[in-house]
Amino acid sequence: MKSIHVVAAVILDEHDNVLIARRPDDKHMGGLWEFPGGKVEAGEPVTDALSRELDEELGIQPTAWEPLIRIHHSYPDKTVLLDVWTVTAFTGHAHGREGQLVRWVSKSELSSYEFPEANKPILSAALLPNRYGITGSYNGLEELARRVTNGLDQGMDMICFRAPWLSSDEYREHLEYLIPLFSGTPLKLIVKGSLELLKEDGIDGLHLTFAQLEELDRKGWRIEREAVPDGKILIASCHNSAQLEMAARIGVTCATLSPVLATDSHPDAKPLGWEATHALLERATVPVYCLGGLGENNLNQCVQAGAQGVASIRDWWNI
Ligand SMILES: Nc1nc2c([nH]c(=O)n2[C@H]2C[C@H](O)[C@@H](COP(=O)(O)OP(=O)(O)OP(=O)(O)O)O2)c(=O)[nH]1
Ligand SMILES: [Mg+2]
């Protein structure tokens, strides 16, 4: 089946609200909410299509944008490539020029609207930050708290607490020490361990190892509300296309892909390099953080390549 190339926009205002529109009842996916956009015309540059569609549908002219995610999705009746951009500035006043209902909603309200099936990873991508910090080595609770606080102060919005050298009792003790730093804030605390942890207050997400991912997939496990409460984040460590496919099949929120470049923390792992990374990102159907030998300096490069952003240890931990 031929794929139709569609450009769509997650349009943000200065308060980080998102513009959504209701698809007319008589169209494909009619009655569902969508991110405004439409079909790219033959030979038309994608960002020209973005500007044209937003003008036609909403009467606005985007002035600043960056790629968010590209999703290949097959519906029973058609296959689409959704090429989604974040629009952070525009001129004009947004209104439904084609008679469609449009609404500005806060990010936390997005989950109460019904979108087409292909939009699940787009919604995740819109909610996730673009930097993901994984904790490095430390000596004692005081240093742990200091380095984590430091990272949060520098704008690291999502942090994975990883400390494989600790016993599980010690890990738990250190985790309890970290939870208050995150509670009552929009900052996300991601942990390592069993799925049960996702049900606990104060824990925002779980980062699965690739071995856990493969085990869950082997068992035919799929994400459902009971195991992964609404709003909780499930991340999978992936190193190849098979694992990225498993991650999508299971229904994780996002994945890390590593090692993109050589890294001291895993000297034996062969780096993917940029070419293979680009190819894997293009096929991925969940948001992906590039990991391994990367840092803040590579953020733009990763976003332009189609990633959600950058995950790093060394880069933020030791400052
Ligand atoms: N714009 C948009 N389309 C989406 C989203 N999610 C999703 O599955 N789609 C699908 C539905 C449609 O099959 C296709 C978009 O085509 P469209 O009908 O809006 O295209 P268009 O604006 O050029 O409309 P038309 O003038 O050709 O009727 O992509 C989304 O969030 N935004
Ligand atoms: Mg449209």
From TrEMBL:
Family, as annotated: Belongs to the Nudix hydrolase family.
PROSITE patterns, per database record: NUDIX (PS51462), NUDIX_BOX (PS00893)
InterPro entries assigned to the protein according to its UniProt record, in alphabetical order: Aldolase_TIM (IPR013785), Mutator_MutT (IPR003561), MutT-like (IPR047127), MutY_C (IPR029119), Nudix_hydrolase (IPR020476), NUDIX_hydrolase-like_dom_sf (IPR015797), NUDIX_hydrolase_CS (IPR020084), NUDIX_hydrolase_dom (IPR000086)
Cofactor(s) required for function per UniProt: Mg(2+)
Binding residues annotated for Mg(2+), in chain numbering: 37, 57
Enzyme Commission number: 3.6.1.55
Record's catalysed reaction(s): 8-oxo-dGTP + H2O = 8-oxo-dGMP + diphosphate + H(+); 8-oxo-GTP + H2O = 8-oxo-GMP + diphosphate + H(+)
Organism: Parendozoicomonas haliclonae
Name of the top EC class for this enzyme: hydrolase
Residue ranges annotated for the Nudix hydrolase domain, each copy included: 2-128
GO molecular function terms attached to this record: 8-oxo-7,8-dihydrodeoxyguanosine triphosphate pyrophosphatase activity; 8-oxo-7,8-dihydroguanosine triphosphate pyrophosphatase activity; 8-oxo-dGDP phosphatase activity; 8-oxo-GDP phosphatase activity; metal ion binding
GO biological process: DNA repair; DNA replication; thiamine biosynthetic process
Record's keyword terms, sorted: DNA damage, DNA repair, DNA replication, Hydrolase, Magnesium, Metal-binding, Mutator protein
Binding residues for 8-oxo-dGTP: 23, 28, 34-37, 119
PANTHER family: 8-OXO-DGTP DIPHOSPHATASE, NUDIX HYDROLASE FAMILY PROTEIN
A Pfam family assignment: TMP-TENI
Organism classification: Bacteria, Pseudomonadati, Pseudomonadota, Gammaproteobacteria, Oceanospirillales
Name of the protein in question: 8-oxo-dGTP diphosphatase
